[in-house]
Amino acid sequence: MPRHMTGAQRILEVLLTRRSVSPRRLQAPAPNPDELDAILQAGLRAPDHGALHPWRVIEFRAQNREALAWCFEQEKLRRDPLAAPADLKRAREHATRAPLLLGFVVSPRERSKIPAREQWLGAGAALGNILSAAHQLGYGAIVLSGERCFDETLARQVGVLPGEYLVGFISMGTIREAPPQARELLSQNVWSCWQGNALQALPELPEPPELPGPAPAQPIRPSERMRGN
After folding, report:
1. What is the dihedral of CA 157, 161, 164, 168, to 10 degrees?
2. What's the predicted TM-score (pTM) here?
3. In this structure, are residues 66 and 101 in contact, taking their beta carbons and an 8 Å threshold?
């Protein structure tokens, strides 16, 4: 980054250079506990309607990775009982390769007044902050999902509760090999301006029909008046 950049410009430059880094390009060391806490604090600062924090992470530490690898292997066999040994080996490596591995879980608050779609947006914003914070600290990170995230047995094995969703697994570590250069994207792909003339294209609504009013009162003829006794 150029030295003449201001602090704000440097932060923006960090965001503009963030890339997903494959676990095979990562190595130790991973974020230490204090750094991981700061990364999760960044997630907690994401936009969050109602301050519900409808997400959480599960850390898979080194001493439990072999057990997780067995769970990944069994999940692969449930999907493909004839899976080749190379495929099973790859499934196991997904659990053991990353220096730091987190499960990202979305936990919608069902009794909340905040719509579910806004809670999912809040969880997604938190996930984005987590990845950006890791990048800001100089680490590489990526979120990998895949079919295993839809396996109910695996979800229960790793501690996902009923009503929660296992969205993906976050791998973090020191970048051993830089990922390929990011493909340049145009802002115009996601940017448009409302022209204000959209209302002119709407069909005219028909005028509501006139409701009949009350019938006028008819005068009573003298002959129809009741006579007293």
Report:
1. -20
2. 0.82
3. no
